[in-house]
Give the backbone structure.
Amino acid sequence: MSLSEQQVTQIAYLARLSLSDDELQDNTKDLNAILGLAEELGAIETDNIEPMAHPLHMTQRLRKDVVTEGDQSDLFQSIAPKTGNKHYLVPTVIE
Amino acid sequence: MSIHQKTIAELAQGLKDKEYSSVEITQHYLDRIKQSDLNAFITVTDELAMSQAQAADDKIAAGTNNILTGIPYAHKDIFCTQGVKTSAGSKMLDNFISPYDASVSHQLNQADTVMLGKANMDEFAMGSSNENSFYGAVKNPWNTDKIPGGSSGGSAAAVAGGLSCFATGTDTGGSIRQPASLCGITGLKPTYGRVSRYGMIAYASSLDQAGPMTKTAQDAAIVLNAMAGFDEKDSTSAEQDVPDYTAHLNNSIQGLTIGLPKEFFSEGLDDGVATEVMNAVKEFESMGATVKEISLPNSAYAIPTYYIVAPCECSSNLSRLDGVRYGYRCDSPENLEDLYLRSRSEGFGAEVKRRIMIGAYALSAGYYDAYYLKAQKTRHLISDDFKKAFDEVDVIMGPVSPTTAFDLGSVKDPVSMYLADIYTLSANLAGLPGMSIPAGFSNKLPVGLQLIGNYWSESKLLNIAHQFQQQTDWHQQMPQED
């Protein structure tokens, strides 16, 4: 199968990216080439194979539910694009 | 021998013998960086370096030093460094002054090293040529018309070009081994989970692993001693004891069984590279090793498997970059959606966008099973191939890259660039440790030999590499300077 420019526009939107006309053309070509590469996997029999999500087959470690970090909001917000009253500011969402 | 030609072990001896101070060697490197046109650094931290060097000299005078005290290094710009810009090679993080240290940064500070600056890299570690950096391509010190490899291209060029004594790198699909190979230095990607990923900006979390890039295997062992270890701040960090990686360097490799995967020597491998790799293998035979042909039947599928798994993980990891809490924000957003869309579209480069989109598509409803789940299953098969191989052999050897360094700007199509990762990707998919060590030259450009070991066999790999470096002098070659 092959992705159309319309589908690539939709994928870009899912990833919150917008593409210029040139970028759309280039990406449609490139994404199709990369997915063409991925189709090679169809040749492998994997019916009874477990998916491998992690190289060491680890399980998530749990830790005690205690506070380990102090309040560093001023430090963290010092690099934010826009803040006010300890909040991160974005354009108005609800009028 | 000039200061920048010395290894960590040699510099440490000179510091101990008061031949020079850390301030002097740090100044020497900073002067060389200033004169260099390799573009190996994104940020040079000269003031910080001089204060760290002074503190190191104080420790040496007081006798409270260790082997890394006062040794200058280049830190890949993917590791968070408190108070210092950490860009990951991206416009998205061009204004990001990290509020905290990565665990690796902390560990190297604890070891009293001197950070010369932050090394250039492909944006978010996505690339094999260092041409995807927002800060421009890095040049190969052996021939400045050539790429240094990537994504740790700045790190490799800094070490090869005598701009730092050692460097840090990260390797998600070959990003330590391939630039090490193309720049003629020693690079080690440890077993997944060996080095903490805390504060190392994530690309593909089940593949990313940090490691040392050095002049010699002995130096790699010294740096790995400082970098390795369990970290409760990284949930995938392994609770595994850290041996002294320098302890077994001098062991004999008599009786070592080397496996040569026939798939690594087939179509697509440059003749000059093949010749140098086979000469290195012959050297090992003369040292008492035996060679056996093996097969990794699914290794050809490493490229499609990796280029699904890694983009899926990256599309998820990079969703955090939205122009709200830190990083780039577009000018005058009309509304929240416009803020997301334009901040991300203006902040990310072409390759990063491409991989995010591949991941978003492969994870989307209706395609997840066909792409992501399928790739996770083939990943299992690739990993099982290695398990079988390590029942028969102690170490796997082969080329790192199918060719030597190619011309800057010569590979424009992304799939062609991906195909060059064929020999390095499978070790990441399996989580195994791998190394590149200098093994010769083809057309005046360095050729690396790849070593892949079983899980947690870093000591063994370093031992094998060190023994090779006792018999050869490829690792001592440095590019000629005008």
